[in-house]
Predict the 3D structure of the following.
Amino acid sequence: MAFFYTLGDPAGLGPELVVRFYQERAKEIPLPLVMVGLEEALWFHAQHFAVPKFWRKITSLKEVKEKGIFLLEPQFSLEPNFIPGRGTLESGLIAGESLTLACRLLKEDPSHILITGPLNKARLQEAGFLFPGHTEFLANFWDKAEDEVCMHFWSKSFSLSLVTTHPPLKEVAGLITEKRILNALQLTWDFMQKRGLTEESIGVCGLNPHAGEEGKIGEEEVEIIAPALEKALGLGINCQGPFPADTLFHRALKGEFKVILAMYHDQGLAPLKLLHFGECVNITLGLPILRLSVDHGTGYDLVGTGKAKLTSLKEAFNLALQLKLGLD
């Protein structure tokens, strides 16, 4: 078993964060760490932050020892054009091909843990990887439909799952189905059991303002969400709602709910990131592997400044160790 860390977009924060993380924590990780990405980006940040080379470049996992930090660099299909802090088609290609290599290796051995560094979705798509984010990429790689996986976010206050991933807002209402809601609830509930949250309940957001006011300003709560919750209760999933989203997060912050299910991306992530931006962990539920990620993007404007928080990356490693090895 090993940690795999994809550097993400080499022009973004992914390489810098792991270099700075090494200074503070990585030497203590009880598993091998295999980084996947462009070595030039690692060298740049190691030199910039006066960190000696801490990795060994390998060409095969057979070279990985019980402990240590290693680098696998894919054979990129274009000559890398690395410009720190500036995303390009080439940086999107490097991110996509690095992620592909890591996924291939984890498909061979799903016991490994995948932590992904941030990539830029526009640069990724320009490079030919036509996915709006990691979640959809990973679902496709493991032959999962988008409604068979769930975006989940851990924070120190409460956790959050999303029914939908990254669709345009105008498409969201049409994607809110009983099947999607039930799948998100089941995946979330199963994950809660792994974390020991056996007595907690999932608070479920409505889609419309005021949770539809009993169908007066939207029918989705009455016709879709409430029936889905009734079926979930019948399956033994402890859930409540639908509640108005504008007050549900306040109730969670006060401790009434440890987990919230939101209907769409910004409904859930706007309040969560207001409270804990740079401190959360993104987990993809429904995959045959454990995949975690930081909660932020490439941050091109922060590259090289040392100002980007390490908290999210640290928490991703900590949470992975808790889930896999029971370690704090």
